[in-house]
Amino acid sequence: MSAETDSLTIDKINGMDKEQFVAALGGIFERSPWVAEGAHQHVPFHSVEELHRVMLETARSAPHSQIEALLRSHPDLATRLQVTPLSAAEQQGAGLDRLTPEEFKRLTELNAAYTEKFRFPFILAVRGKNKDDIIKAIGERVNRPLEEEWEQALHEIGKITGFRLRDLLPEPEGAQS
Questions:
Q1: Residue 11: which residues within 8 A CB-CB, separation 6 or more?
Q2: Whole-angstrom Cα distance, residue 65 to residue 122?
Q3: Catalytic annotation present for 52
Q4: Do the Cβ atoms of 22 and 41 come closer than 8 Å?
Q5: CB 50 within 8 A of CB 156
Q6: Do you know which PANTHER family this protein is assigned to (predicted)?
Q7: What is the pTM (predicted TM-score) of this model?
Q8: Contact 127, 162 (CB under 8 A)
Q9: Which member of 42, 46, 74, 155 is catalytic?
Q10: Higher pLDDT, 177 or 99
């Protein structure tokens, strides 16, 4: 489907059966194709923003355990473990593949403290940020209460998935959301 993916449009997405829809959009939410599967029942979409809004509502209205699994599906930032191609590209764009040994050690320690406290990895939309911004953010957020950080993580997932959808489905100039 890669030739089709290069020129995906809302009209093409709206014309897909559930299997095609999930194949095209299942990776938008990290390792959670169930979000696309749930959103498919709301076809047709009039804009990328509407599609994104429905996908976010699908994720947020899932049972607590499923939302927790979504949070846990995200990789640690600057991890040496295998990540999805989308996550790898996003992290490289923020310079996380070029950390000094000291920065890598600091981020690894902060990631460990964060995950120990919250039981899910630190999630941040890294587009437009650099490694210093990211280290500062995790250093601040590790001290928050769980409820506040849970909401922040979901908010960041909303930003990440919005970027991913707009990259995959650019809307024509002048399109209405």
A1: none
A2: 18
A3: no
A4: no
A5: no
A6: 2-OXO-4-HYDROXY-4-CARBOXY-5-UREIDOIMIDAZOLINE DECARBOXYLASE-RELATED
A7: 0.85
A8: no
A9: 74
A10: 99
